[in-house]
Amino acid sequence: MSRFLAEPPHHHGTPATTAVVLVNLGTPDAPTAPALKRYLKEFLSDPRVVEIPKPLWWLILNGIILNLRPKKSAAKYATVWMPEGSPLRVHTERQAKLLKGLLGQRGHQLTVTWAMRYGSPSIPDVLAHLKAQGASRILIVPMYPQYAASTTATVGDACSAWLLRTRNQPEMRFVRNFHDQDGYLAALEKSVRRHWQVIGALGDNDRLLISFHGLPKRSLDLGDPYFCECQKTGRLLAERLNLKPEQFQICFQSRFGKAEWLQPYTAPTLHQWGTQGIRRVDVLCPGFVADCLETLEEIAQEGRDDFLEAGGKEYHYIPALNEDDAWIKALADLAEQHLAGWPTRTAVDPQALETSAGQAIKLGARA
What integer is the mean pLDDT of 204-228? Predict the structure, then answer.
């Protein structure tokens, strides 16, 4: 058995093409326990996601987690599942289509598609399909604004593993992060201000909670930049919104297990604010550019319950950027920045250009 994948048929004279691949975390195929078990097994088996000695973690994962968590997670997914499928899948697919359209309007001729790091369509399947179509230049865009080894780096791992098995490798580039990109921050600002135009600006007894996905604190101690990049995103956004320090708080959600994670935690903060008499909370999750279980169920539903049950009066979740025009523009700007130097512009026939120029001169003479 060959260590390399079979190469697609080659036809001399076939032009090489360029592709952009948006990569998000992943999603089960259905809101069912069997589908969640498959998804969680792949996700939680990644050593970058869970940095526990493999033999010990194998026992915990297969003996406890995969027997208890799939059913509970499936019930949560069922509350946010869309007619077209998982919210993360639906929004990521729409973003890819809109990005392709906008880049096409800007004169780029390339393929834009999407993949999931865990689940389907998988990164190896998407890359193999692009290669079979003639793509020799591929830009990978992990849809994580803030870099983390457990998210962004795993995308590089999957692409590298595929390259190791590929005889005729395409040229590849990777976007590392965009936590402080002007377009991304402008899209977040626009989204918050649009919300305030409908609900009203924050009062003296109201707060904006900027919630990011959590990671074990050990990741920061080991040199992961995620915490710092989250802090910078939150600070820059608050400055754009002209918020005073007491009007907002950066927090971290989705804590799992008993180890210490990045703090302050989102759920306890919401509970504390409710007991302290904070009237209204607006919540934004800048680390998610597409709505998913962690935003729609954990923040929009569980977070609301935590705050209101503790005594809060008004709670609003501000949706992720999803298909927002300003975000798609920022995404196109980001792609163009990293595509620089690659031939992506639509080819122009010199003879046709000369003919058009001649016609323009004649029309000018007549005028």
Answer: 97
DSSP letter, residue 247: G
Annotated binding site: 213, 294
- The H-or-E segment that residue 58 falls in is helix 54-60
User: What is the edge-to-edge ordering of all strands in the sheet holding 135-142?
Assistant: 111-118, 17-26, 135-142, 171-174
Q: Three-class SS of residue 204?
A: coil
DSSP conformational letter for 145: S
Burial environment of residue 140 by CB neighbours within 10 A (0 to 12, 13 to 18, 19 or more): buried
Q: Residue written as tokens 């969640």?
A: 36
- Residue whose tokens read 């809060």: 312
| pLDDT recorded at residue 1 | 66
Three-class SS of residue 114?
A: strand
- Which of 108, 87, 109 is closest to 27 using CA atoms? 87
Under the banding of pLDDT at 50, 70 and 90, the label for residue 16 is confident
Rounded Cα distance between 228 and 237, Å, is 14
- pLDDT tens-digit series, residues 145-189: 999 999 999 999 999 999 999 999 999 999 999 999 999 999 999
Tell me what pLDDT residue 12 has. 79
Structure tokens at 88: 């993360």
Q: Which domains does the chain have, with CATH numbers?
A: 17-179+324-339 (3.40.50.1400), 182-317 (3.40.50.1400)
Q: Helix, strand, coil % (nearest 5) of the chain?
A: 50, 15, 35
Residue 327 tokens, joined = 């975000």
d(CA 98, CA 347): 22
DSSP bridge partners of 23: 115, 142
pLDDT number for residue 259: 87
Q: What's the pLDDT band for 344 if we cut at 50, 70, 90? A: confident
Dihedral in degrees, nearest 10, Cα atoms 189, 219, 138, 173: 90
Residue 38's Cα: distance from chain center in Å? 21
Which parts are annotated binding residues for Fe(2+)?
A: 213, 294
